[in-house]
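Risk register update: the risk of archive-format incompatibility is retired. Evidence:
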Amino acid sequence: MLICSNLCYFFLKACMKSLWSDQDARACVDKYAAQGVPPELALRTYSARLLGANPKLVLHGGGNTSVKLTLTDVLGDAVRVLCVKGSGWDLATIEPAGHPAVRMDPLFRLRQLERLSDEAMVNALRTNLLDNTAPTPSVEALLHAYVPHTFIDHTHALAAIVIADQPDSEALCRDIYGNELVWVPYVMPGFELAQVVARAVEAHPQAHGLLLAKHGLFSFGDTAKQSYERMIAFVTWAEDFIAVRKAARVKSWIPGQARDDSRAQAAPTTANVINTLATAGAGAIASMADVAPYLRAALADISPAGSPRHWLLDLRSDAQALDFANGIGQTEVAQRGVATPDHVIRMKGRPLVLAASLKGQMDGWVTDLQARLVAFVSQYQAYFERNNARVGGIKTMLDPLPRVIVLPGLGLVGVGKTAAEASVNADVMASWMEVVTDADACGTYEPVSESHEFDMEYWSLEQAKLGKSAAKPLQGRVVLVTGAGSGIGAATARAFAAQGAELALLDLDVAAAQAVASSISRQALGLLCDVTDAESVRSAFAAVVQRFGGIDIVVSNAGVALPGGMLTLPDEVLRKSFEVNFFAHQRVAQTAVRVMKQQRLGGVLLFNVSKQAVNPGPDFGAYGTSKAALLALVRQYALEHGKDGIRVNAVNADRIRSGLLNDATIALRAKARGLSEADYMGGNLLGQEVTAKDVAQAFVVSAQLAKTTGNVITVDGGNVAAMLR
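Archived output:
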């Protein structure tokens, strides 16, 4: 077993620590006891959550846990069961129901079989559920069943995978863990792996865990605490090994001499890359906001029929990601494959590597991007054809687009159909990056073979993890709403989110925008924006593109309602009204169209005009005239940018309670028309007050009218004088 020297003391201070709390564990038992949950399952839930909360152990539904206990069936008979993590559950948030109970005796009878298809295995697991409405047990349920310990934990701990992905991982396992772990060669998860593990554990009854080559780590225990703390210890020992090996390599290198690891010389640091470019007079590295629209355009151009064209991007630009992107991420090492087979459905095996993007030289970079993307797709198609022939030509190729990208000078980019998916893919890439870096630094990174990678990627049970729910109508679209902190803007943001769109909410009241964003989703973005300030608009749009990769729909909603008769109206009031209700919309539209043209995906501009544009009211001239000018702006943009596939439409609403039409304004307008406030708000053909939700619905409908531009939808309950035709 490895013994650490003082040399690595500072490396080891950050090693993984147990987070087990006896007090918290008892509280968990007490909490679930009220729901009739046995103590063992409550503790299983508690320790599973401890594992799931640490991204260095598991990510986004990865890993699995189990406990063996005795429950009572519907007849009152005692039944020995395996409660194992079920499909669709994440260890970080798992509840007792996430460990469905499967009868053990029938599972043991399966051991006598020489082979068992995946479909038959899943059927056997579901057939033997104590509750047939429970989720399908993990594909590794049989493995958990055949290991003779009460609690079993399985993770894809990064440090352990560094060891598992070495060509001499078996010898390293013995050196680091002695008899504590059994080393198991790579085998596809499922029935065969369960049989291999069963025999290995029977041959080494003293072991407390498994190191699965190219895969991950298991720990066993008689109690939840014991199994959990063994997992932490095993990971810590791996971290210790990595620290010692890396420290020894650093110590052995004398400045001025060639390093023992030649790969290190091929991996320049971030500072070196940027300095080299600057010295060469190439100009500054472009920002994500500069390059992302072109990247979205290129992905859309090469998307196969039936695949989405609106892809979302998620940039990771921390120091570690930048160093990787500027160094080893550009080398052959990063093209060897995924760190653990589970990553393949999130990474397509390997990243697309792009050139550094430089401001002032985007045309050449875009051409290079397109060529690299075509090459990536061609290589994926060749990979599929080779391996599909190997398995008898029975598979149908998945879309060949990359899901992760190395972007020198900027970092790592996750690609997904939704912002959440892009974020998950970026998370997985960040973990893979750490494994590749450490594995190469302390040995040789040697992940699963291409054939094993293919078998996992095209395994139906693995693809099932991604889910096959129908896409919502606006999935993949990024919607930017101004004046989104309240009223019509907030209602519109929520309406678009309900249709699957990603939301960026801009408002002068940033706290309000962020509050609405938080109420929508973890991915929604709330930003400060003063639409009367050009730099504020530019910065807000850049932040949205930086976050999502682009912009597809803009709802230019921010406005101001200033009362007053034209005869006595001060110039400054009229100018302010035009600044907010006309020039700000022009500023927003200009910025949006520039991004949309770069994306080459078309786009939608939607404007909150007002019935005042066609049916002005007394003593409201500043508002009515500026809104009339805005309606003309809508028509002009529709005229000029139809050729770019950009549709431009408006909503003419009337008498909507909001920040513009507050109680005081309602009272003034009602008085100006000689009406009660109730009659004023319901003064339309339908006799009903129109709400912000009604206007929001009109914006969503307008965004989905694929062949309509220059249109105005009136949302006023019916007003003959405001009818356009």
